[in-house]
Amino acid sequence: MNERILELFQAQPEVYVSGEELSRRLGCSRTAIWKHIRELREAGYEFEASPRKGYRLLKKPAKLSAAELLSGLATQTMGHKLHIYDEVDSTQLVAHALIAQGASEGTLVLAESQTAGRGRMGRKWHSPPGKGIWMSLVLKPLIPVYFMPQLTLLTAVALCRSIQQVCGADIGIKWPNDLLIGGKKVSGILLESSGEDERLKYVIAGIGISANLLAADYPEELRGIATSLAIETGAEVRREKLIQAFLLEFEELYRLYHEKGFAPIKLLWEALSVSLHRPIRTTTGQGVIEGMAEAIDDSGALIVLTPSGERINVYSGDVEHA
Ligand code: BTN
């Protein structure tokens, strides 16, 4: 009900809506409306209440709001089961625990801050409070374990396209799944899974987006390599809008992937990649590989053409652009 109330106010911002109209449009009593407005106020929404004109929405909360997120969510499944926390160790760990209790596909875990945010390759992920989007999405894809890298690339495509739409940022994907603006990282993806006999039981897509961090929010060692959407575009990001756009984009690509396989996702990834057709350097289990990033193969591996003419498929690791 709180979501429907917010939808009404957001459809006509700045306008007073009377208690009578609210109760008529939502089919409930004036007392029920009053109770819901009180709940929204407690969640940080500010309303002006005029005895003759009704209610007017003045301010939305700075904290992530479940009601607002759900009120504009156009997906069928992704994000409808929502868990929002002020502080967790890692949203990945919370998602693992929720799955153990039966959480279904599309369940989304969000936190204002993480004390032990996890990055790829055992690194830490800087997750200060209130400014980023730190989230984990539960997936139960019908694919074998060895297709996981494809899902990672799909997630990067969905994220890149939603950031382009909502923030108008000139953003690209560095293989496999770092999102960069002007060579600096704004977002990272970590997929964790559990499987049995080559079949995936579940995947948790962990996504970190540095949305509204300022330069002062980064520790010294990250300043030269990381940036935020707000720093790069000069505008504050409405986090709920970006999450909604990502979930919709992800759901559509995920459906396409299940229907048509990896080929269309691969094309989209290639179009957004800033790694392809560039000299790169990567450290893998087999040592350092240098060469031209030529393409990705059907499993999502990066094909590197070395100066000696050898083609090497790189399955995991970090890439440095030369
Ligand atoms: C990387 O680029 O190294 C991946 C970073 C992934 C960070 C996100 S933030 C939400 C989710 N919870 C975590 O602990 N990690 C992921």
From TrEMBL:
DNA-binding region extent: 19-38
GO CC annotations on file: cytoplasm
Residue ranges of every copy of the BPL/LPL catalytic domain listed in the record: 67-258
The protein's enzyme class: ligase
Keywords, sorted A to Z: ATP-binding, Biotin, DNA-binding, Ligase, Nucleotide-binding, Repressor, Transcription, Transcription regulation
GO molecular function, one term: DNA binding
EC numbers, comma separated: 6.3.4.15
InterPro entries with a match to the protein in the record: aa-tRNA-synth_II/BPL/LPL, ArsR-like_HTH, Bifunct_BirA, Biotin_CoA_COase_ligase, BPL_C, BPL_LPL_catalytic, HTH_11, Transcriptional_repressor_C
GO biological process annotation, one example: protein lipoylation
Sequence intervals crossing the membrane: none
Residues reported in the UniProt entry to bind biotin: Q114, R118, G119, R120, K185
Reaction(s) the record says it catalyses: biotin + L-lysyl-[protein] + ATP = N(6)-biotinyl-L-lysyl-[protein] + AMP + diphosphate + H(+)
Family: Belongs to the biotin--protein ligase family.
Classification via HAMAP family: Bifunct_BirA (MF_00978)
General function of this protein: Acts both as a biotin--[acetyl-CoA-carboxylase] ligase and a repressor.
Protein name: Bifunctional ligase/repressor BirA
Organism for this UniProt entry: Paenibacillus athensensis
Classification of source organism: Bacteria, Bacillati, Bacillota, Bacilli, Bacillales
